[in-house]
């Protein structure tokens, strides 16, 4: 069981502003509504009292339904790893970090070359995340571009479940059929349907389509998943200026409306289903026509969403550890550091996308390692300081005396580790020592650490019969699903 | 008294400032009261839009300005289209392109930006939207006498539909009738070559360059 440190120190919205945002969310859902390309969901909403137009497929959701569903969503959600030491509880201000998935390209760890990502890369990046101390959960880093296209979701699931013992947040790729198979594989690994429900080792990450559309495939996936009572993220990727208002407050309003609109369906379908609220705040760069993940605006929106989630008291799908840089350089580290600080200090909960580069199109092992290092440092920030007799240290000050040294004090020996966090890769040595150790920059050191981990780190394998069963599911799907 | 030039300049200013208010009326006035031929008007508007596109290329204006101007052009075109169809002269389009996102894929921001840029470069652009099967690309191309078909795919899982489009064209004996260009984040020039497409555009600017080159206007 892992304990998540509490954030929440960083706030930019006043209570009054939070309430204004909430009122705007209610207005959007009630007056403008959501277009839902799924008959079943529309019926469900209609029966519950929503104003549904089956022709335009627009459901206008009254305030009380939104409020009721917020109340029905669990305030604390326990997520499981296939090894219980990685279980954790999402709640309140507690923060947990995980990788991000779906990047098309990878920077080759040996050559540094940008190339298409494969199933093997996904396996390696997952195993890397399994070893890294500050990574709490996994997503399917990269893309299995060598897998048959209709089966991507299953290959992602296999790559991750075989290569980590940590909790897995899985992409929904398309439709009911694929989702059923994804559930089947998760049940095989968990040891059965009931076992998976009791101890969900997988959360589904499913998305609305901004602005204000719930696509058929994604609602189908939601239905399959929620019927089983498994935890689900329903969070849009809003791009401010393109698929959401150009204003940050407006983007957060729309993001919230889309996410909470999904929660209404989720809680009607199966009350008490663990729902994770939020969105990935993006902006469309107006100069280059490219999606940006890390700008001052995305950070601000991330903090706003954290504050909204605390107001709703529903765990948040957070975002961090991203860069728009094309390589693991100073920009990458700087952007990641700022984002990790903003995400952690604002008290986001299930915080994903560590290792996202180049607008979400690129990943690399060295960048994930650097993020892990930075999270370690931020965690020390979250721990805060203890102020008591011993730490105020009046006695120690007297003991050291005028012009004395603290180096020899027992006080120093006793409290050093509690007070000071030591990083692993960041250069802290003298110039001479640094040179004698090869004069390597951070990226080079991160690359070496990644290689070492991939050489040495082993993940407890799944029983052979389980792996065989997984392969059978994939094989049979190859006949049905591929379209 | 305002002259024909004054009214035209007023309309071009609307285009420049991405201000749709009153643009339709100005266009109507030019056609009906000022004796401007529809072709003359389209050409004047296209020239202006091209200037705007070039400004975006040089980083002097932002994407929303360009898209806003293209939207004004679209709304004026609804007034102009019937008049154009009746007219004997032909507007001087660089070419006609059908563009959309392939079946199974709903990512359409990039494709819409490409459409605006192509329009700004003087193309007639037929947008068919997202989640479109190969048949719909072909149908739109046939109906509109297109020169080029542009297909966007943002998912590794939907890239194969671009290939299907080409196969479908071959099957119908139409492959040589159209140039096909592909784009979208996971695609590449190598992919375009592998599936037998005629070109690839990594971004909207390149999309325009490639489209022009393919029809000998680059
Ligand atoms: C916004 C977004 C969404 C939005 C789309 C909203 C919309 N209306 O478009 C939503 C939230 C709906 C969405 C959904 C999904 N998404 Co998405 N999405 C993105 C994101 C973040 C940005 C896309 C974008 O708008 N880019 C900005 C535009 C301007 O750039 P562009 O599209 O690349 O276009 C430029 C060029 O490519 C080129 N171009 C584009 N089209 C064409 C066409 C021609 C002919 C030419 C010549 C050039 C050209 O010119 C354009 C302008 O310069 C990307 C990441 C990324 N950076 O691409 C992921 C991304 C594409 N999505 C991804 C995934 C996995 C999904 C989902 C499966 C996730 C899920 N579980 O729900 C679904 C699939 C939905 C579906 N069936 O299509 C993955 C793809 C992974 C892969 N390897 O296949 C990406 C890469 C993110 C990631 N790392 O996971 N997504």
Primary descriptors:
heterodimer, A: 483 residues, TIM Barrel, 8-stranded parallel beta sheet, 4-stranded mixed beta sheet, globular, B: 218 residues, Methyltransferase, Methionine Synthase (B12-binding Domains), Chain A, domain 1, Rossmann fold, 2 domains, binds cobalamin
In terms of topology, how is this protein built?
The complex is a heterodimer of chains A (483) and B (218).
Chain A: H1 15-32, E1 34-36, H2 39-47, E2 51-53, E3 58-60, H3 63-72, E4 76-79, E5 88-91, E6 96-99, E7 105-107, E8 114-116, H4 119-131, E9 137-138, H5 152-163, E10 167-171, H6 175-190, H7 193-198, E11 202-206, E12 213-214, H8 216-227, E13 232-234, E14 237-240, H9 248-269, E15 275-278, E16 280-285, E17 290-292, H10 296-312, E18 316-319, H11 330-345, E19 350-354, E20 362-363, H12 365-383, H13 389-392, H14 394-400, H15 410-419, H16 431-436, H17 442-456, H18 464-480
Parallel strand pairs in A: 1-12, 6-19, 7-20, 9-10, 10-11, 11-13, 13-15, 14-16, 15-18, 18-19
Antiparallel strand pairs in A: 1-3, 2-3, 4-5, 7-8, 16-17
Helix pairs in contact in A: 1-9, 3-9, 4-5, 5-6, 6-8, 6-18, 9-10, 10-11, 11-12, 12-17
Chain B: H1 4-16, H2 23-32, H3 38-57, H4 63-86, E1 96-102, H5 109-120, E2 124-132, H6 134-144, E3 148-152, H7 159-171, E4 179-183, H8 189-195, E5 199-201, H9 204-214
Parallel strand pairs in B: 1-2, 1-3, 3-4, 4-5
Helix pairs in contact in B: 1-2, 1-3, 2-4, 3-4, 4-5, 5-9, 6-7
The complex binds cobalamin.
Protein model, in words:
- The complex is a heterodimer of chains A (483) and B (218).
- Chain A is α/β, with parallel strands linked by helices.
- Chain A has 3 domains: 47 residues, no CATH class; 314 residues, Alpha-Beta Barrel (TIM Barrel); 26 residues, no CATH class.
- Helix content of chain A is 47%, strand content 15%.
- Chain A is built from 18 helices and 20 strands.
- In chain A, the strands form 5 sheets. Chain A has an 8-stranded parallel beta sheet. Chain A has a 4-stranded mixed beta sheet with strand order 2-3-1-12.
- In chain A, a hairpin with an 8-residue loop joins strand 4 and strand 5.
- The longest helix of chain A is centred in the middle third of the chain and has 22 residues.
- With 218 residues, chain B is an alpha/beta fold.
- Chain B has 2 domains: 83 residues, Orthogonal Bundle (Methyltransferase, Methionine Synthase (B12-binding Domains), Chain A, domain 1); 120 residues, Rossmann fold, CATH 3.40.50.280.
- The interface between A and B is medium-sized, with 25 and 18 residues.
- Cobalamin (B12) sits at the interface of chains B and A.
């Amino acid at each position: 069981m892992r304990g998540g440190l509490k954030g929440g120190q960083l706030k930019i919205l006043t209570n009054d502003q939070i309430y204004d945002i909430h009122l705007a969310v209610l207005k959007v859902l009630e007056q403008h509504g959501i277009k839902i390309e799924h008959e079943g969901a529309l019926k469900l909403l209609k029966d519950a009292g929503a104003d549904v137009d089956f022709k335009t497929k627009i459901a206008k959701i009254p305030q009380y339904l939104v409020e009721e569903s917020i109340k029905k969503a669990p305030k604390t959600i326990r997520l499981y790893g296939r090894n219980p030491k990685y279980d954790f509880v999402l709640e309140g201000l507690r923060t947990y970090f995980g990788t991000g998935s779906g990047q098309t390209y990878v920077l080759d760890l040996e050559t540094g070359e940008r190339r298409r990502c494969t199933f093997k890369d996904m396996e390696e990046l997952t195993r890397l995340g399994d070893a890294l101390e500050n990574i709490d959960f996994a997503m399917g880093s990269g893309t299995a571009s060598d897998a048959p296209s209709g089966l991507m979701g299953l290959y992602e699931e296999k790559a991750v479940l075989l290569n980590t013992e940590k909790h897995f947040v899985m992409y929904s790729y398309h439709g009911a059929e694929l989702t059923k198979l994804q559930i089947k594989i998760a049940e095989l690994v968990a040891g059965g349907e009931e076992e998976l429900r009791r101890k969900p080792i997988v959360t589904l990450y499913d998305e609305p389509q901004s602005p204000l559309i719930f696509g058929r495939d994604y609602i189908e996936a939601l239905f399959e998943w929620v019927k089983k009572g498994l935890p689900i993220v329903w969070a849009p990727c809003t791009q401010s200026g393109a698929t959401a208002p150009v204003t940050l407050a407006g983007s957060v309003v729309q993001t919230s409306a889309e996410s909470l609109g999904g929660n209404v369906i989720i809680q009607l379908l199966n009350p008490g289903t663990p729902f994770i609220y939020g969105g990935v705040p993006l902006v469309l760069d107006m100069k280059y026509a490219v999606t940006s993940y890390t700008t001052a605006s995305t950070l601000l929106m991330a903090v706003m969403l954290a504050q909204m989630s605390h107001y709703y008291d529903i765990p948040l799908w957070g975002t961090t550890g991203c860069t728009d840089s094309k390589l693991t350089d100073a920009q990458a580290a700087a952007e990641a550091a700022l984002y990790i600080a903003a995400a952690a200090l604002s008290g986001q909960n299930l915080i994903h996308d560590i290792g996202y580069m180049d607008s979400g199109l690129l990943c690399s092992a060295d960048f994930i390692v650097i993020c892990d290092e930075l999270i370690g440092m931020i965690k020390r920030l979250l721990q805060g300081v203890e102020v008591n007799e011993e730490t105020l240290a009046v006695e120690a000050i007297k003991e050291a005396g005028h012009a004395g040294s603290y180096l020899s004090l027992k006080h120093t020996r006793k409290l050093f580790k509690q007070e000071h966090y030591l990083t692993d890769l960041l250069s802290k040595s003298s110039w001479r020592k640094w040179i004698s150790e090869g004069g390597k920059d951070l990226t080079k050191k991160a690359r070496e650490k990644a290689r070492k981990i991939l050489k040495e780190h082993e993940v407890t394998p799944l029983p052979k019969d389980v792996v065989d069963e997984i392969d059978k599911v994939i094989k049979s799907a190859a006949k049905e699903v591929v379209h | 008294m305002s002259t024909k030039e004054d009214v035209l300049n007023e309309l071009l200013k609307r285009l420049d400032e991405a201000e749709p208010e009153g643009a339709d009326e100005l266009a109507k006035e030019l056609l009906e009261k000022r004796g401007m031929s529809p072709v003359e008007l389209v050409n004047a508007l296209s020239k202006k839009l091209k200037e705007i596109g070039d400004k975006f290329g040089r980083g002097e204006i932002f994407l929303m300005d360009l898209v806003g101007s293209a939207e004004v052009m679209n709304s004026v075109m609804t007034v102009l289209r019937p008049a154009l169809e009746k007219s004997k002269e032909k507007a001087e389009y660089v070419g006609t392109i059908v563009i959309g996102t392939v079946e199974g894929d709903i990512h359409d921001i990039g494709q819409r930006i490409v459409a605006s840029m192509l329009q700004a470069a003087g193309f007639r652009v037929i947008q068919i939207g997202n989640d479109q099967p190969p048949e719909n690309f072909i149908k739109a191309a046939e109906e509109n006498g297109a020169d080029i078909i542009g297909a966007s795919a943002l998912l590794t899982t939907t890239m194969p539909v671009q290939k299907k489009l080409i196969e479908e064209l071959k099957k119908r004996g139409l492959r040589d009738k159209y140039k096909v260009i592909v784009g979208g984040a996971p695609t590449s020039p190598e992919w375009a070559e592998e599936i037998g497409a005629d070109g690839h555009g990594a971004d909207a600017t390149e999309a325009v360059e490639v489209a022009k080159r393919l029809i000998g206007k680059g």
